[in-house]
Fold:
Amino acid sequence: MASLLRLLLLLLAVAAGPLHAQNALVKTEHVTAELLVHSPDGLAPGKDAWLGLRIRHIPHWHTYWKNPGDSGLATALAWTLPVGVEAGAVMWPTPSRLPLGPLMNYGYEGDLLLPVPLRVPAGFSGSSLPVRLHAEWLVCREVCIPESGEFTLEIPARAVVASADLFGKAFAAQPAVTDGMFTRARLDGGSLVVTVAGVPPALRGQAVQVFAEEPGVVETAPALRPVWSGGQVVLALPLLVNRTDSPASMHAVLRLGSEARGIRVAFDIPGPWPRIGAIPEPAAITATVTAASVGGAGRAAGAGWLLALALAFVGGAILNLMPCVFPVLSLKILSFARHGADRKRALAGGIAYTVGVVLSFVMLAGLLLALRGSGEQLGWGFQLQSPLFVSALAILFTLIGLNLAGLFEFGSILPSSVASVRARHPIADDFLSGVLAVAVASPCTAPFMGVALGAALTQPAPQALAVFAALGLGMAAPYLAASAFPALARLLPRPGGWMARFKTLMAFPMFATVVWLVWVLGLQIGVDGVAAMLGVLLATGFAAWLLGLPNRSQAGTLTRAVASVAVLAATASWAWPALHAAPPSPASTDAAAAEGRAPPQAASATHPANVHADWQPWSPETVETARRQGRPVFVDFTAAWCVTCQYNKRTTLANEAVIQDFNTRNVLLLRADWTRRDQRITRELNRLGRSGVPVYVLYPAPGAEPRILSELLSVAEVRESLKGVAVFAPVANNP
Amino acid sequence: MKALIASPLLLACTTAFAAEPAIGQQAPAFEITDVSGKAVSLSQFKGKHVVLEWVNPECPFVQKHYNSANMQTTQKHASDKGVVWLTVQTSAQATPKDVAALSDWMNTRKAVTTATLVDSGGKLGRAYGARTTPHMYIIDPAGKLVYVGAIDSKPTSNPADIKGATNYVTQALDETLAGKPVSQPVTRPYGCSVKYGT
Structure:
């Protein structure tokens, strides 16, 4: 009985055996993996045959190439084969780049087949061949799951071609070794410079992706700028700061343009390799920022803390001359004339104003740092990217303007308690005017300040805030000095009737500022938003006038209060949807529209037709494409609310000689419009070491470093920078 | 002062990690909060050896070394010799819940660390060029980087491979504590990607 049972079990085992042996398919949560065979001539000595592991990934998941890049693990195959039978190395298809934040991986998504050549020994004559495979792969999306599978397959000796298509595709995706191509390499500072000659004509002039087969030597995701000349391309691959290997030879797969199939190159690397830690910084934009920025300000990025403070102070002082601060400054002049005689009062006011300015700058910077810390892509001037903030400023300026024009007195519309506090603490006014000055001045990135603020925002919070405090001190300094030295104040005429007229006059710059803010708003939320805003401004003016009428009776005051609240509420509820409306479509707010490209007839009215500048919207891809073609590029990082930008645009960038210089060299003119929040532009500004606009970048010839021009752009500077740029004649690709 | 001068360069370079320190160079200064909200800076450990370990509880490679107690043994070995051990989790944005979860995980795994740092936004990770979890760094008492790379010599997620692997961190610590140069100062880190977000 027992032996019968044993026999039964044995039979079961035998019956189950072949089933088990044919377990060539493994399904996991993320892939379907299958062991395949391709033997068009059957299994015989000297005949080609292949095994292959097919991995079908679920969407968005990937496995890795032989060099997985910054993280990950290459798929590993371990074969168990009869004695004498050999499986060769994995024939990796051309990989793809799989970026994840700042990291780069190399691998595959979708349907992948990893073929392996199979060799049977000379005396092979079996009718089948048992194959076992233990495969391990790391499959990742944002998270990584290590998976593995045991595969068994009994391969018949006859020809198997069921998977011919899949193998055919995998062979076609193998990096090609192109005859007549010649590769050499040399070490140059922190780079491995690879020169590939003899590239077939169809592949020339393209973008190049480089996949080094040996990990741990060169950067995985370099910002590669291939330099083409005919059939030769020079690639400078930055060495890893902490490389794990210094090989005498290397292999790499190159992908040119959109070619799915790579080209495999091999090259020797004549030493000596630089010692780790002795590699100079890659000569990247770092050097250019320092070299190209305005005069002495240039070295701010490298010269550190004290210089950044000093630059911030000077920049702050210069802010006073910027058009956006002027209306607030005019208020201060008035208060000077009023309090000029009272030295103590003037000094107290000056200090209060300074405290207001410094505190506001520090708080604004603190807010910016906090938001950036939480991952927001923001830069300096971010507050003006909010339509609601712009609206609030417009209302505020309208009220100040109407007050200066004499429509109403603040005293009569403010609740009496507030008015009396103001009367008892006049220096509170000075403090508040400091706050106001900062609110308006912050977008005017004055000359020198771009560098200082860019440096500041990358430092630890206390240092960054100190830089902004220095900026505030600089801005308040001229006024503080004037209040401390009454001799300066005495230069103003004696108080008198002229003051009333001057006050009215100053209403006009206020209203001019409103015009500008409404224009900014128009670019952000469109013409409906502008109409809504103007309605709100009208209602605000009406309510202010109504409330400011002289008090006759309790009942009259109440009626007027109710009426003005009703008018304001009705207008606000009418305007709210438009002010909150979705921004107009990108096409209507791109750089061309936002920057108000003149209609053709207007252009021909102001300029001869041949000096028309053709600005196009910026994108990193456009820059990349143009540079690949060898075309020089000039980028204007701008925003509607940035007065310096608008000034430069209407003067230097509209200058006929400048436009002619651009046009004769066929420079591609790109405008990056930061009027609204745009993460790509913010990232590019960060990369350039800046945190605000304007920034002007010239990419001269291919291979040359981009140059950053100064924020207050002069005609001479642009023309000088263009002198070294060769005339670009586009190759007639499409005859 | 040196770190201050270097830091503005962080954002100015073309490659993601162009500011990462090389072996033998000064390790970038930092101040960052730990899971309890306390500020921790590199400068407060001047004069001591400091280990930085990048962690992510969800990563199988991290689990390999924690579930087998290999990481804790390495931490204990370091701690017994007066070495400061700072474990860092980098993420695009750490919510209070994430921080609490990390803290709990470290506690239940009985990690022997000086502090667990929350690198929300990835500034610290970028400053050091951290690529994988785990990714290990050793800083000597003078503030110079003396080791960077993997925890050990077998780049797999299989805990069975820990036996027979060379623990590079223990090896480098023992050498540098004995005043000897580190024999393998740079190794290739392996593991999951550090989660900087996209």
In short: The two ends of chain B are 32 Å apart (CA to CA).
